[in-house]
Structure prediction request, 360 residues.
Amino acid sequence: MSLQAASSPTRPWLTGMSEAIPLLGGYVPVAISFGLIATQAGFSAWEAVAISTLIYAGASQFLFVGMVATGAPLWLVVAMTLLINLRHVVYAPNLAPWLTSSRLWPSLMHGLTDQVFALAHARLPQLPAAQRLGWFGGAALLAWMSWIGGTALGAFAGGELVARWALMGEILPFALPALFLVLIAPRFTSRRWSLALGLTILAALALTVTGLTNLAIPLAAACGALCFQVAKFDHSQKSEHVQGERHE
Amino acid sequence: MSSALWIAVLASALGTLLIRVLPLFWMQRRLERQGNDDSLEAMPQWLSLLGPVMIAAVFGVSLMPVTPSATSWLATLIGILATLAVWWYKRTLGWPVAAGVAAYGVGVMLLG
Prediction:
């Protein structure tokens, strides 16, 4: 195993929460920004909190309030929100092999954001089956609560917070790339995977720099997947798939 | 918020939830149908490929600094190197992230 974070056999939810703490560095500043922007766009503080609680999908929430503020037709607002979130369609199936038979899993999928998926995809295979539900519940709940809490902070006191903690708002979000790097680093297991993942990272960064943030994840992932299929080195395709998937 | 706007919020929330949940049901049914001991073998090849590349894409997007400038890009590089170095040494989840954020913060303050 590449990541050997400690897990408590009796309180897996606590382990999940502690391992999700790095997500807060990215979630809270962005959620504060959302709360602030939503109130500036004419939503009340409680309405901003309701949006974060119910939709719970960062980029699409910004788009939602932005489009509503500009008077876009509501059907188009909903369509664009769902279009941006469409990338989530591949997350749950990727976790399915490690999910237990509990009926709670579908309701927990509300918390399956980009970041929670990345964390769960790395950690669930390493946990005993009995701990997975608790671990995921703890991690997802902490992330969700931090998003809601951050939105409330931004909506009620955003202007003052941004002015007083400007530097922290710039530094703390680095927890997200640092966490993703730790999650993706063990997957550089062969030349083929390294090439595909490296290209994906560069493509996503280039698209983001050029302002295509909402398209960056699906387009870059498609580039990387295509690269993996096209690039063939000495090893067999099947063994590399399994090796990469189990990130040994 | 008007009633129409509340309906738009609820429709977006329900749609997003379905985007996250329905593929789970599809995959669970597929796993049950195949009844394979090794459930990874039951996963379509394209799907097992998409997991790691999606994480790589999210990483690439997150590399963009909050306030892009030469200083913040250099601090990002410092933070990435510090994260990688500590991960290489410790192979854990928490310490590399803490080291990366600390290195990035020091970089921003010293270079800025």
